[in-house]
Amino acid sequence: MNESLNLNQPVKDMGPNELKAYATLGGKQHDEANKELERRWRSYDDMLPHDEFVSIIDKAARESSV
């Protein structure tokens, strides 16, 4: 990454390279959060019914776009 990218400025002021870096960072944070949620879900495997893990992050995003 280019050290001159300013990802702390408002999105409307970002250039194309900053927007790409910002989106990548957001995607990585999303994936990390989902992995942690699934890890916590799996820690209850012996106490809960064997349901498929459904991300509350992705569910909230789908509901807000409807």
From TrEMBL:
It comes from the Bacteria. This is Uncharacterized protein. It comes from Bifidobacterium moukalabense DSM 27321.
